[in-house]
Amino acid sequence: LAKDGATLTPSFPCLPRQNILSISNNNYYPIAVTQLTIEVLHLSLVVGQVSHSLLLHIGPLASEQVFYTVANRIWDENTYKICTWLKIKVHHVLLHIQ
Fold it and tell me: Which of 9, 35, 53, 94 has its CA at 20 to 30 Å from residue 20's CA atom?
């Protein structure tokens, strides 16, 4: 188990990501968010997804924040080799969240 919560299985690393999503309402009337789906991409492949059914009311010209965690697994063999290579002590894996 790495310091950031990542686990390295014998096959591929699992990288649970915790994040905050800010939702802004730039309108002059209130809105409600009822369904939220978040995907994590590595390269162009979806490696994690989380769906929330929630009822979030956002007033006019206001914003709210949603905390979420996405469990994802990097299936790319080259990334796995970099993450497990003992010669590299510090590394970063770029994940795109949409």
Answer: 9
The three-point CA angle 5-96-11 to 5° equals: 50
Residue 97 pairs in a beta bridge with: 40
Cα–Cα distance measured from residue 6 to residue 73, given in angstroms and rounded to the nearest whole number: 10
pLDDT digits (tens, 9 = 90+) for 48-94: 788 888 889 999 999 999 888 887 776 667 666 666 667 765 555 66
Give the Cα-Cα-Cα angle 70, 74, 79 (nearest 5 degrees): 140
Q: What is the pTM of this model?
A: 0.57
Closest CA to 46 of 9, 75, 20: 75
